[in-house]
Amino acid sequence: MTMSDDDILAPRRSRSGSTRTTSSGPEARGPIIDQDGREIRPETLEQGFREFRFELGKDNPFAGSPFGNLTREQRIARLEAIAKLLDVAFILPGTNIRYGIDGLIGLIPIVGDIITTAISLWLVREARALGAPWYVTARMLGNVALDGVVGMVPFAGDAFDVMFRANMRNVRLLRRWLDKQPRM
After folding, report:
1. For the chain, which terminal residue's Cβ has fewer other Cβ atoms within 10 angstroms, N or C?
2. Alpha carbons 110 and 104: distance in angstroms, whole number
3. Helices 166-180, 111-129: crossing angle, 10 deg rounding
4. Which of 125, 111, 110, 121 is nearest to 86 (CA)?
5. What is the C-alpha separation between 118 and 116, in angstroms, rounded?
6. For residues 121 and 132, what is the distance between their CA atoms, to the nearest angstrom?
7. 22 Cβ partners below 8 Å, 6+ apart?
8. Is the full-model pTM beyond 0.70?
């Protein structure tokens, strides 16, 4: 059953003879309730979304950084977790071969290798921010470059990505250097 334009725009009469208003009037809607069960004032809705804002001040623990203020050990743990996700997160069924999303994303020609190389470069940047010296970051960059260049070769490069595990090597290099540093 379709409605005519007159039914949509004009008030309809109920069986009792009283007139119903269209849904555009505030009295026809009733109260507006948010997801927590509180009533929302109509004035608030008229203001639009100006009332909704993010507070990124000094009282917010996540201000200025999407990861918050992490300790050195938490940052290292995050790097290790990302490296494991990229290189050894999954096991090929029926074998003992481990691979990560680096090998999966790398299957997308060129774009996948660029994405995974960018993530690997971010890991090197984080290592540098943790205080790794130039010779450690240079080796890490060499691992990323080798992984990125050889990874561009179709199929053989993807197999190399799975076996070489540049991110795990880089985290291991960083961890070895950190273990040699005196504790404070």
Report:
1. N
2. 13
3. 0
4. 121
5. 5
6. 14
7. 8, 9, 11, 28
8. no
Longest dimension (CA), the chain: 89
Structure tokens at 91: 């096991």
Residue type, 179: D
Q: What is the pLDDT along the chain (184 residues), one digit of tens a residue?
A: 555 555 555 455 555 555 554 445 545 557 777 767 777 777 766 565 554 555 555 555 545 555 567 788 888 999 999 999 999 999 989 998 899 999 889 888 889 989 999 999 999 999 999 899 999 999 999 999 999 999 888 888 888 988 999 999 999 999 999 999 887 6
**Separation CA 43–CA 68 (nearest Å):** 35
Contact status, residue 123 vs residue 60, Cβ threshold 8 Å? no
DSSP 8-state secondary structure symbol assigned to residue 132: -
Record the tokens describing residue 159, joined without a space.
């197999």
